[in-house]
Each structure stands twice: as structure tokens, then as C-alpha cells.
Design brief:
The protein is of the alpha/beta class. It has 25 helices and twelve strands. The structure holds glutamic acid.
């Protein structure tokens, strides 16, 4: 009896691989175009690393006129959750990283592994026919026993070489067992010799020598689904991936993957293994953890109201450190279009992910938004997360003016890093919120009578809503002079004994009386937006 019979017995009614080879022809792309993919598992948790991977893959594809696709790897049915796929694709959509091809879109699908069962079987069948794969009848108990013996003998553990009991089982015996109804799975028959080294060239990590793989890994499980490794080889071959970008937890599997590609007769793609995002903890660093770090979840950024542009900009910073300088020189350019990304510039080891730095980037990003954009984003966020802010913003015309203070100019205000800060940032501009301010912390001038004098004098003899900025400022100086304060700070500094203080102290009193705060954007603009009636009311 021959292997063909065995293969037919294991995989009846399965198409020949030539069918799939024809169905998924070579892509017609320009020279140098890269086909890059992200292959997430739908576990219900979307890690910020997934956005990082998507950003890199999409950028490379865009830059080379290639293709970016997302393949859903759901062969581990235990980890799979309902809606997991949708959540992943929604996240990519939210971050403007939607792939060129994915579930429901593209000619190289299905892009979800559980729908590709027949394809994997076709290739597994071919391997069985060739003698490069075999059925394994070992029970869990037998596998445990093997491991036990290996540990005793101080050997590597696993299913390989002389330990692989079913590896050399005669074909007719295997056929008999299957006919008998004995349960089995299918294993790869590894040709590797771990005493020999394989040379790997990783685009990010450089050249690495690793021992050849000799493990006879499972390729088709008892549920008929493939294992990750096997599916990876088949899928990236049929989808014509040219560059595998993925996290470096997979680096140690590369000898196995290359072996699978070779035995299957596939062209080996290039690999680029990215270092994990890390968090500083005390003196050391560790991987950003789903369990310990809220910022590991993409949902965190949505909830906090950190703009997606900010997260992407920051991630690009982490990916290519020269991006920061590029951004300074090109504040208005679109990084996805114009920045020259380079995989070689990515760090070989862990990249520090620092939320403080991220918020700083976010401030810069938000400062470049128009008032209308700030309004729209903040409103959308508030609708979902902050009813009070939503109500404030419902007064749209006024809110646009408030958010427009010191914006859309050469040096825009840089005081908001996330939408959840907006309410506190602008609350004093709203009458009913200002009414709740109880503590006015005056600074240099704290004497009540003096404050009263400054404010009364200002309102009665100087303030006019019709003044332009220069006049307004000159009047502030006039008031200072009248009350014994220096018109200019410089003047005061050279002769401090001649004055009670300077014009800045006077305007601070007005500022705090009007807003309850010592730090605000431009006071003149604030007063213009508040309007005459409100200014007078607050001052009196
Ligand atoms: N499904 C794997 C994961 O979730 C992807 C590995 C790969 O990109 O090849 O990490």
C-alpha cells in the first residue's frame, strides 16, 4: 500500500493544490512593491501593538505601491470570541489603517483562517503523499510519557527524531489504524538537523544563526484546523506576501517556518521582526502588558479621548526616531503620504512606550487642529463619555469661539492633550460653570481693598468691548500708572522701590477675577469672547 492511499484516506474529496495555485496567481505589482500583512487573532483584546503593526505594514505598502492586507488567524477556537474580527477591523478603520484586502474584500481570500480549512488540507495531503507528513496516533498520555523520559534523560522536549514514535510507522499500519477508527492528528516530518545552523536574514534584526528545526510539529489538529505555523506558510504563500512584519516573539519559530516554506516548495518571504513596546518600571523595562497597563488596550485611547492622529504620530516616532525631526520641519504634511519610513531604522530591542511623551505629541497634534476640528472631535467624544461637556458644547457658536482662542495662527495654544481635558480647560468660559468657582487665588496682589480698587477703576474708566488689542493693552498700562504701578515690567525691574508693582500684576488681578485662574490663553481674546455683559458682571 502506498502513501497516496494513506493521503486519500485522511483527506478524501480534497482538491489538488494545483487548483489553489491557479486560483491565486502571482500578483501584478510594480517592481519593488511589497505585500505586507498583519495577522491578528480575534481574542477580543486589541493591543496598541496591533495598531503599531498595522501602521508599519500600511506605511510600507503605501510607500512601495504594494498591498496591505489583514488576515484573521482564528485557528485557536478556544481563544476566539464573538465579534472579535469585527472589533479588529473597526479598530483599523477608526485609525485610518483599513487594509486594501481583508475579510469581505480582495481576491486572495478567504482572509479568515477558519474558512480556509479545505486549502490547508490540500497542502497537508500533498505532504502526506510525498512522505513529508504523517498521521500521529500518540495519545496525550503517551506524549506526557515521552516528555517525562526526555526530562529524565536531560534531553530537549518535543516530538522529534527517535522520540517521534509515529514518524516511521509503516504506511499499511497507519492505514489500518485509521480504518480502525483510532484517533490521530497530522504531523510534519521535519528534515532538519539541529546540529546544523541556518542563517536567517531579518530586515530589522540583521543576520542571525539558529539551529535547524527538527520538531515534527502538528500541522492539522484533531478538529481539522491547521496549527498557526502551517497556516502561516500556506496563507503567506497563496496571498503572495513578500514581507512578513510581525512581533519578535515569533523570531524563534523562523527556522521552522523557513523549513515549512521550503518543503512545501514555496518562495520564502522576507521577515522583519519588530521589538515589543515596553514600559519603564523602576530601573528596568518590561513588555507593555495587557494585564497591568491600561494603555496597552486600544480602547484606552478612545476612552481618554486621545486623538488617533496623536497615537499614530507617537507610534511613528517609536518606529523611526528621525520622524520627530521630520515632523518639526513639516508640520502640515501627511506622514502617511510624505514621510520616508525605513524598516532598517527600527530598534532591534524593546521600544519605550511613554504615555507622558505621547500626551506631549498629542498636544502638538491638537494645536494644529482648527477650532471646528477640535469642536467636532471633542463633541463626538463627549457624546459618549461626558454629558456635561456635551451640554456645554451644545452651545455651538459660542463654543467655537472659546475653542478658537489662540488657534489657527502661527503659534497656536498647546494646552490640550486629550478630549477628556477639554471640559476643565474651558469650563470658566461658561457662565454656570464659572458660578461654581469659589476660590480665587490671587497671587502677588492679595489685599482685598487693592483688588477692589483695581477692578472698579478698570471697569468704570478703562474697559470697552470695542477696543482693539493695542488700545486694550495701552489702557491696562494707563490703569497701572494711575494706581502707582509701572507701565512696563522692565521699568519696574530697574526701579522696584518706585512702584507698587507692574502692569502684569494688574492684568493678573483682572484675569483671575474674570476666570478664577492665573494661567489662561490670551486675556484680550477671552474678554472678547465673554462679551461685555459677562465681563462686567464678573468684574462687579
Ligand atoms: N496570529 C499571530 C498573532 O496573533 C500572528 C503572527 C504572524 O504575524 O505571523 O500574533
Amino acid at each position: 500500500m502506498d502513501r497516496k492511499e494513506l493521503a486519500d484516506l485522511i483527506f478524501p474529496d480534497i482538491k489538488d493544490v494545483s487548483y489553489y495555485e491557479e486560483k491565486y496567481p502571482e500578483r501584478e505589482l510594480k517592481e519593488g512593491a511589497q505585500v505586507v500583512r498583519v495577522a491578528p487573532s480575534p481574542t477580543g483584546f486589541i493591543h496598541v501593538g496591533g495598531i503599531f503593526q498595522g501602521l508599519i505594514a500600511k506605511k510600507i505598502a503605501k510607500q512601495t505601491n504594494g498591498i496591505f492586507f489583514v488576515r484573521i488567524e482564528d485557528t485557536d477556537q478556544k481563544r476566539k470570541i464573538e465579534n472579535g474580527t469585527e472589533e479588529i477591523l473597526n479598530a483599523y478603520k477608526d485609525y485610518d489603517l483599513y487594509p486594501d484586502e481583508t475579510v469581505g474584500k480582495g481576491n486572495y481570500g478567504p482572509y479568515i483562517q477558519s474558512e480556509r480549512k479545505e486549502i490547508y488540507k490540500a497542502y497537508a495531503k500533498k505532504l502526506v503523499e510525498e512522505g513529508n507528513a504523517y498521521p500521529c496516533f500518540c495519545s496525550t498520555e503517551e506524549l506526557d510519557k515521552i516528555r517525562e523520559n526526555q526530562t529524565k534523560a536531560q534531553e530537549r522536549t518535543g516530538y522529534f527524531g527517535k522520540w517521534a514514535k509515529c514518524r516511521n510507522m509503516p504506511v499499511d499500519m497507519a492505514i489500518e489504524k485509521i480504518k480502525n477508527g483510532d484517533p490521530y492528528i497530522v504531523r510534519f516530518k521535519s528534515p532538519g538537523n539541529p546540529d546544523k545552523k541556518i542563517k536567517i536574514k531579518d530586515v530589522i534584526k540583521g543576520g542571525i544563526d539558529m539551529p535547524e528545526n527538527d520538531q515534527d510539529i502538528v500541522i492539522i489538529k484533531s478538529d481539522g484546523l491547521p496549527t498557526y505555523h502551517f497556516a502561516h506558510a500556506i496563507d503567506d504563500h497563496l496571498m503572495h506576501t513578500t514581507l512578513v512584519t510581525r512581533s519578535d516573539e515569533w523570531l524563534s519559530s523562523v527556522p521552522l517556518h523557513i523549513q515549512l516554506f521550503q518543503v512545501l516548495g514555496f518562495k520564502v518571504p522576507k521577515f522583519a521582526h519588530t521589538a515589543p513596546l515596553e514600559k519603564a518600571e523602576a530601573e528596568s523595562r518590561r513588555k507593555l502588558s495587557k494585564r497591568k497597563d491600561p494603555e496597552a488596550a486600544v480602547s484606552y485611547y478612545t476612552e481618554e479621548g486621545i486623538p488617533k492622529e496623536a497615537l499614530k504620530e507617537y507610534l511613528m516616532n517609536i518606529a523611526n526616531s528621525n520622524f520627530e525631526i521630520w515632523r518639526k520641519q513639516n508640520p502640515d504634511k501627511d506622514m502617511m503620504e510624505d514621510f520616508e519610513f525605513n524598516l532598517n531604522k527600527m530598534g532591534v530591542s524593546g521600544a519605550l512606550f511613554d504615555t507622558v511623551k505621547l500626551l506631549d505629541v498629542a498636544k502638538g497634534v491638537i494645536s494644529r487642529f482648527t477650532a471646528q476640528e477640535v469642536y467636532d472631535f471633542a463633541y463626538t467624544w463627549a457624546e459618549r463619555y461626558d454629558q456635561e461637556l456635551k451640554e456645554m458644547l451644545d452651545n455651538k457658536e459660542y463654543s467655537l469661539k472659546v475653542l478658537g482662542i489662540e488657534r489657527e495662527n502661527a503659534k497656536p495654544r498647546k494646552d490640550i492633550s486629550k478630549w477628556s481635558e477639554v471640559k476643565d480647560n474651558i469650563s470658566y468660559m461658561y457662565k454656570d460653570k464659572f458660578a461654581n468657582v469659589k476660590d480665587f487665588e490671587y497671587q502677588k496682589i492679595t489685599d482685598k481693598d487693592e483688588i477692589k480698587k483695581i477692578v472698579t477703576e478698570y471697569i468704570n474708566n478703562y474697559y470697552s468691548i470695542n477696543d482693539d488689542k493695542q488700545t486694550w493693552f495701552d489702557k491696562m498700562k494707563d490703569l497701572a500708572e494711575k494706581l502707582g504701578y509701572a507701565r512696563e515690567v522692565k521699568e519696574y525691574k530697574s526701579n522696584p522701590e518706585d512702584y507698587k508693582g507692574h502692569v502684569g500684576d494688574i492684568s493678573t488681578v483682572i484675569r483671575i477675577t474674570l476666570t478664577g485662574r492665573a494661567n489662561t490663553p490670551d486675556l484680550y481674546e477671552i474678554m472678547q469672547v465673554l462679551g461685555e455683559k459677562e465681563v462686567k458682571e464678573r468684574l462687579s
